[in-house]
Amino acid sequence: MFLSAVFMALFVRSIGGSRTGAIFSAIVFASCGFMTAWQGTPMSDAALWLPLICYAVQRLHRDRSTISLALAAFSFAMPVLAGHPETAFHVTLTGTAWAIVIWASSINLRGRSFDTGFLVSFTLVGLLALGVASIQMIPTVEWVGQMGDTLGA
Fold it and tell me: Quick one: which of 39, 64, 51, 127 has its CA closest to 91?
């Protein structure tokens, strides 16, 4: 619960929220029904990374430094390592949707037609996250393939 609150406060501050708004949203997210009902399970362990993913994408859009790339890759890899693939997929999909929203809104604000730097950085983040998460994904895929042999299929 603590990490989810910290990550939500970081995200809200990064999008321009006040300190009071960040604290309130951190408390609300950390103690929402989903996070408390599934506390101690892989579902909440995967979901707690959602605010960090959104913060990392926001930071990557503003600052394309190595630290921002590493933070975003780490935040996208952690839900996979938490052990609940469905929630990891939903969190990753939400983070990707947030990146698309940020990218689309920056086109209108800056008057440019295409921000290739952010798209290249975000693609690199995805590849790095896959590399970090592959330590869990490769054995899982192999295990799922062997399940058919065990069940007599």
Answer: 51
